Amino acid sequence: REANAWSRRFERAETRDGHPVEVAANLGNTLHAADAVERGAEGVGLLRTEFLFMAHSSAPNLATQTNEYRQALEALAGRPLVARTLDVGGDKPLPYWPVPQEDNPFLGLRGIRLALTEPGVLETQLRALLLAGAPREDGLACPLRIMLPMVKDVAEFRAVKAIFDRLMVEIPADERATDVQLGVMIEIPSSALLAPSLAAEVDFFSIGTNDLTQYTLAIDRGHPVLSAQADGLHPAVLRLIQMTVEAAHAQGKWIGVCGELASDAVAIPVLVGLGVDELSVSARQVPLVKARLREFDLADARESARRALAQSTGDAVRDALEAN
Ligand code: PEP
Ligand code: MG
């Protein structure tokens, strides 16, 4: 089965009846982009740029960041790169960017909230991404998707969009990305509940099921005892995903899933049945996720989603899906 998945890794990802679902890779290091392509990834669905910041003893400068992002885009050769802006704080401290001692770091200064306290750092990152996304010498476009982490409502998006719009005017058009989108992660319940207002303004959504599950169920995703209960297939999480997909599609926006749930064989039909357009998973999983998609029809997926949403606990969802 694995050999078959590997031999078909470059084929377009779609369900048995031909419904396309993009399969992209999650990366922590731009050097791994070539490997992701070799494993069949149709793009990078989540570049965790914080690892670049963690590899330096102070914030990497404009040139360093531009080179780094350019490397990934070159390796992707025209495939899209979804780059997430710096997502530190909470469980991911950055030594040279100290955050005041907090009783609840998961509920504190992290993600886009933290970035907006130092807009200069965020602006340098946005500028580096835009410069890196300039078309190649041979004219090939480099589709660039910039994604903001831990957004709780549209105000945070607008604050970043204002910087982004200014840079798009400031940087000469032939020196920056042309095929560029600005979107947000949906990983806080408030942003799922308010997805219609966000969908009207963003270019795309990507659901971070790791944090969305943590914040919906109030279970620390790394908790030594409880994390087993932090199941992204919990019907409460699925309802938030359903609301978000509906809001995105009502505005003609695409929506991906980049948390762990996207590579869960039981969850994949549910996510497809809910209407998710893209799954972003670790590069190693790309061939297997593509193979899983080929095993069912869209109608089966919709039935799995319907059955899952009708349950009242995470275990009941898994039982109902596995019994099938
Ligand atoms: C998530 O929260 O699901 C996610 C993809 O982001 P991270 O795991 O980096 O927090
Ligand atoms: Mg997250």
Automatic annotation (TrEMBL):
Location in the cell: Cytoplasm
Superkingdom of origin organism: Bacteria
Membrane-spanning residues: none
Family: Belongs to the PEP-utilizing enzyme family.
Name of the protein in question: phosphoenolpyruvate--protein phosphotransferase
Organism: Vreelandella malpeensis
